Amino acid sequence: MSAYQTTRTAPFGAISTYSFIRFISNISANVIAWNDARVTRNSLNKLSDRELDDIGLTRGDIAGIARQTSF
After folding, report:
1. 65 exposed, middle or buried (CB, 10 Å; 0-12, 13-18, 19+)?
2. How far apart are CA 53 and CA 62, in angstroms?
3. Which tens digit of pLDDT belongs to each residue from 4-44?
């Protein structure tokens, strides 16, 4: 029996292209997470203290909740 080596080097620029695409993807994910946190924060801030109490939150909890839901 013979054995063949199937390991090949990556084509020129493949690693750079992959790194760039991953960089852009990370930026996109961070912007989406930031926007989700912003929308959550704005929605909760529109509620009255009574409505927040009904769902078991206080005004001081809003920042933490928005941060948790976005990541």
Report:
1. middle
2. 12
3. 777 777 777 888 999 999 999 999 999 999 999 999 999 99
Ramachandran area for residue 10 (φ above 0: left; ψ -120 to 50: alpha; else beta): beta
pLDDT for the residue numbered 71: 62
Q: Which of 15, 9, 67, 3 lies closest to 41 in space, CA to CA?
A: 67
For residue 7, give the 3-state DSSP assignment.
coil
Report in angstroms the alpha-carbon separations of 16 from 8, 9, 13, 27, 60: 17, 14, 5, 17, 44
pLDDT number for residue 1: 58
DSSP 8-state code for residue 47: S
Average pLDDT over residues 35-62: 93
